[in-house]
Every structure is written in C-alpha cells, then in structure tokens.
Amino acid sequence: MFIPLAGTVLAACGNDGPQKPNIILIVADDLGLGDVSAYGSTTISTPNIDSLARNGIMFTNGYATSATSTPSRYAMFTGMYPWRNADARILPGDAPLIIPEDIPTMPKMMQESGYTTAAIGKWHLGMGNGNVDWNRQITPSANTVGFDYTCLIAATNDRVPTVYVENGLVEGLDPDDPIYVDYKKNFEGEPTALTNPEMLKMNWSVGHNYSIVNGIPRIGYMKGGQKARWVDEDMADYFVAKVKAWADTIDTGKPFFLYYGLHEPHVPRAPHQRFVGSTTLGPRGDAVAEADWCVGEVLAYFEEKGLMDNTIVIFTSDNGPVLNDGYDDKAEEMLGNHDPRNGTRGGKYSLFDGGTHIPLIIYWKGKITPMVSDALVCQMDFFASLGDLTGGNVPEGLDSQDIIGAFLGKTLQGRQNLIHEAEGRLALRDGDYTMIPPYDGPERNYSKNELGNLPDYALFNMKEDPSQMKDIASREPQKLEEMKEEFTRITGRTIGK
User: Fold this and answer.
1) DSSP assignment string, 70-134
2) Distance (Å, rounded) from C-alpha 291 to C-alpha 302?
3) Taking a C-beta distance cutoff of 8 angstroms, is the pair 224, 181 a contact?
4) CA distance 11 to 300
C-alpha cells in the first residue's frame, strides 16, 4: 500500500531543485467522483487514492473535456478540444492512430525537455494507418507521438483485438497462429455469443455479442493469436508488473513522464479473484477496489526505489461513471446507496455535468500544501501547465491553458470557461454557469444515463444547483444570451447542432 512519508509539507513551488520534476499521470476508466472515498463515498474504500488526496490537492471542479474516453485522452495529449478533430470519437479496436504524427503533443514536449517517457495500459487512440496487420510491427503508434516505451491495449477491454501491444508488436504472438481482426464480418467457424452462448462465463446485455475471448463476448470479430490473448482477471497484475519493470530501467539522471492508463472500472469488469467480494457492489465495485490497489502498488514501488522525492502524481478519470455498459454484471441491481455520480446529473455519454465532472488529484511530496480546491480545471490544461512548470516548449494556438498556479494550489483561479463534449454534442461552462444548447435525440441511451438532449436552450447555476434540476434560462435571459455568444465565439457554432 502507498503511504507517503511523514514530514513537513512546504509551500507550493516550481522547479527549484537540481532536476525537473518527474510526472506520473494515472487515468482511470469510467471512474466517477462518487467512486472515490476521498470525495465522500462511504460504500467503497479507496485508501491509496485517498492518500494522494489527503496529502495533495483534491479538485472539486475537475473536468475532462469529454464524456467518453477517446476524445478526453486526445485532449490530454494534444492540448486541443477533441471536437476540432472529427476522428476523435469512440474508436473500434482496429482504428488508425488519430493523433497526427506532425502535431505537437505533451509527451513530445516532455521528450524535447529531456524526459524519458512511457505509456502503459489503456490507449484507445488508434494504432497503425487504418489497415493494421497485427502480425507485424505496427506503425504509427504511441511511440511515434512522444513515448519512448509503450505497452498498451489498442482500444478498450471489451473490444478486439484482446492482446497487449509492446512497442508496436503484439506480445507473445505465435507466428504460426496469426491474428485477424474484422469489425464487420465474422471469420468462418469462429464462435460468437449468439452462436455459442454455452461458452460464456459473462453474459452480454447490449451489443457485446461478437467474438468470445476468455469466456467473455466482445465488440468485433477476432481469429487466431491464442497464445497472445490476455486473461482479463490478470490484466491489473500484468500492467502493474510492466510499470515496475519500466521503473527498473529509469536513468535517475533524467526526469521521467509516465502515463499509466487503468482499465478499471470499464466493462467487462473481471477483477482478479482476490478482489472478488471485496465490496458489496458486485464486479463494478470490486474493480474500483482493484484500481485503488494498482495505484498503491505502483506508487509504493516508486517510493521503494527512491523515485518519489521529486515526483508529481496526477490521478484522474477519463469521463464520468456508467453502470450498465453492455454486460449483465448486476451493477445496477447491487448499487444500493452508492452514488458514483456524487450528486451530479448524467454520467458517461452525457452532456449533463456527470459526463465530464471527474476526480482530479495532484500530489507532489513536500512541494505543495494539501488542500481542497474548487478552481475550475481541465485535463486538457496539463499540456500548457506542465510545459510552464518544466520549461517545455508550448506551441501557440492550443486550447490548453497555463493554469499551473491552480494545479499547484497557489491560486483558486483556474479556467473561466470550458466546452464540454459528449459524442459530438457541445455545451458551455462559464464561471458558475452551464449552458446546454438544444439537441434532438433520446433522453437516455441503453446505459440509462441521461444524455442531455433538451428541446431548448437550458441554463444552470452550478454553484446553487450542482444536480442541474433547475433550468433558469427564462429567469436570466441576459446571461443566456451572453453564453450563447461565448459558445459561438469558441466553437464557431450558432447552435449546438
């Protein structure tokens, strides 16, 4: 378990040591504010994440740009709003890399500033050029956009190919059993959830009824690569071991930047047996407990190796929470009094606040004063802010803003405004207000999260009404008009469509 060393905590400071600070960016998958006990959950215990919050800065107004994972990660690494790139949407497992190789990225900036860089865990930003041969070196990849070492899953753990890709090569692949992937047509004779339900150890609820791997039905079709296929229950241990192995290679004379993408609690929720039953919430709750263990295990190892004394740890999630996301794992039935949204409205896929309002914690041993901050901050701002802190080259024209003072607790002033995105639909947060333009479409999707598709413009005071139950558009028409103009200025759109 990760327990920071006791000692006097100093006031926030910049890079005043002999070496630039190391940076560990940990991004959970579909983790809600209410899933972290530091944010008030009494139904799940997350002691390792709580330790970061207790000894660091816990943001109550931390946001992803987007209510789904691909676009929010795109914004983190590029410093650009994802809606500016039409390809920055939920990707299939065989999608090409959507980060152009010739644009600036945060990891490239780190490399240019003398950092050793690594990406380990979930990727979901595409690999290859659109016609991936999984049996050869895959390029372009995360290695071509700023990471020296990579060990990743191509998309999500519910999509094929269900293999680990290390530095562009599928790990453990038997050349006599090549991998084939198709998202349109099955391979002759390959079982699916529809043709061979007797092979399933986990049932699907919506959409996840294609190829079966490890007794779990997936999205997409896959053939071959039997020895290379992952075992879901071992994924947490696998990536923890990869992070530790990479830590063993670190040149202590150089700073490092590590992106560690957790797969929990994204579906399929299949935690290791030692976590099964560790909560009363079923597989989803147990997966959160496993994610907390991963955080503790990794940071304890860095501490043991003496690598935490000048290391910034950023913990966050890619988007808001979801319960039923395609598998019948009883996440709704076993929810009890647990509120993963922490009182917000919506969740994953939603334009309401719960879609992008996420846990965000920054810890820097002995360098920042522990506090709870209500500054409006966004993951997209890591690029410009860390660039300022490390002396990196931050190009002009980014949407990323330099709010390093807020991230280090020197000020409670963060961003003034932020565009939220949910599957192509946009809304505006400005100060204490959120404005949602009208959108056609259903109120909810299969996950039962409210999507934020409203018949007319809606305005909410987030300070007075964080659950967004009181539309005040008719009561404050001048504020609504001001926000419409600001929305158009930023997005170029006159309405939300």
Assistant:
1) HHHHHHHHH-S-GGGSTT-SPPPTTPPP-S-TTS--HHHHHHHTT-EEEEEEE--S--SSSS--T
2) 17
3) no
4) 24
CA distances, 400 to each of 74, 91, 281, 356 (Å): 12, 23, 37, 16
pTM: 0.96
Domains observed in the chain: 22-182+221-407 (3.40.720.10), 424-491 (3.30.1120.10)
Distances (CA, A) of 7 to 4, 309, 366, 400: 9, 12, 8, 34
Encoding tokens for residue 227? 């020895």
Where on the phi/psi map is residue 189: left (φ > 0), alpha (ψ -120 to 50), or beta? left
Q: Is-contact 87 98, C-beta < 8 A?
A: yes
pLDDT in tens, 186-214: 999 999 999 999 999 999 999 999 999 99
Q: H-helix or E-strand containing 207?
A: none
In whole angstroms, what is the distance from residue 367 CA to residue 8 CA?
A: 10
d(CA 383, CA 468): 30
**CA 427/CA 460 separation, integer angstroms:** 11
CB 263 within 8 A of CB 153: yes
Task: Determine the 3-state secondary structure of 481 from DSSP.
Answer: helix
Task: Give me the residue label for tokens 């496993």.
Answer: 290
SS3 track for 295-335? HHHHHHHHHHCCCCCCEEEEEEECCCCCCCCCECCCCCCCC
Most distant pair of Cα atoms in the chain: their distance: 69
Q: Which two tokens stand for residue 479?
A: 């504020």
**Which candidate, 85, 37, 139, places its Cα nearest to that of 421?**
85
pLDDT tens digits, 354-369: 999 999 999 999 999 9
Amino acid at 26: I
